[in-house]
Amino acid sequence: MLVQSYAIPDLPPPVELETVRVYRALTMASRALADLKGQARTIPNQGILIDTLALQEAKASSEIENIVTTQDELFQADLFPDDPQSPAAKEVALYRDAVRLGHERLRRTNGLITNAVLIEMFRLLKRRDDSFRVMPGTALRNETTGETVFVPPQDGQAILHHMRALERFINDDELSPLDPLIKMALIHHQFESIHPFPDGNGRIGRILNVLYLTRTGLLDIPILYLSRHITRHKSDYYRLLQAVRDDGAWEDWVVFMLEAVAQTSVTTVRLVEGIRDQMASAKHQMRDKLPKLYSQDLLNNLFRHPYTRIEYVQNDLNVTRQTAARYLDTLAEQGFVEKHRSGKSNYYINTKLVRLFLEVSEG
């Protein structure tokens, strides 16, 4: 029988967290995140950022779980959800949908991130209807050796107790005077250590990060591209998670997460600035070349859906199918999009925007 290998502590843990090293990392992270928040406000339609950047975050987060897909597969799966191709891309799209769901519930609950919301995101992400673990037997193992590296709480009642305590820590700002970014690092570690779900804990935990930053007002919308940093430093991420459990190395863990916030905020600013500049350029060219065709709604469609189709334009602009097809074909003729065909359906790619995603993700 598996025995729990780490005593889940009360939060905040009884250690000094506001050290000089943590403070320096916190200063950098706070500045970078504030810059991202400000830059995001320069995009006229925030839905563009939520949709496009959440999908990029979903791609990076899923790669941590060895769910790998290409940009083309990702957008194709989003474009044709009934196509059975690329199950990995569909998994990534579900992550994006879980981010959207969490953000919508956050707005409805007056800024509360409840266990009910986490369960709802889990059910969407994993396409199952159960909840927190109730049966023993869960252990985290080394992917290469198969060695057990961590055993989370096994008892269902203990899991529920710890998740209720974590829910209070997330939502009661009076429980701790710590900076919200430090709290985010503690929350993430606690969630991953409780490991409350049968599967998908890593992805739900990373969604929890960005929802918490939105809840605290550090971001207006959930767009921080945090998983990219974790993907690139995957071994450090898991090593530092375990070092807290083994040695109480909270400072190292908090600094790692603060550095992740700082570096991925800079990356996400590059994406936001690139989207803004491309939108401004496309707007100017459309007004110049296609003044009768141009509308802000049409421009928004091309950037909210890097791969778009006639039905999207038809719905977004409230025009007939024939009109939507004419719009897109005209845009393709003028070089704003590239026209492609899949089966019996046409679709249109904003190639400059897709190239921006590739350049930033590979940079």
List keywords for this structure.
363 residues, mainly alpha, Fic-like fold, Arc Repressor Mutant, subunit A, three-stranded antiparallel beta sheet, two-stranded antiparallel sheet, 15 helices, 5 strands
Overall SS class: mainly alpha
Helix content: 55-70%
Largest sheet: 3 strands, antiparallel
| CATH architecture label of the largest domain | Orthogonal Bundle
Quaternary structure: single chain
CATH fold name of the largest domain:
Fic-like fold
How many discrete structural domains? 2
What's the CATH H-level superfamily name of the largest domain?
Answer: Fido-like domain
Explain the overall architecture.
Helix content is 64%, strand content 5%. With 363 residues, the chain is mainly alpha-helical. α7 packs across α11 and α11 packs antiparallel against α15. The protein has two domains: 247 residues, Fido-like domain (Fic-like fold); 73 residues, Orthogonal Bundle (Arc Repressor Mutant, subunit A). The strands form two sheets. A three-stranded antiparallel β-sheet has the order 3-5-4. Strands 1-2 form a two-stranded antiparallel sheet.
Write the layout of secondary structure elements.
Blueprint: H1 20-40, H2 46-64, H3 71-79, H4 87-108, H5 115-126, E1 140-141, E2 148-150, H6 156-171, H7 180-194, H8 201-215, H9 227-232, H10 234-247, H11 250-289, H12 296-304, E3 307-308, H13 310-317, H14 321-333, E4 338-342, E5 345-349, H15 351-362
Antiparallel strand pairs: 1-2, 3-5, 4-5
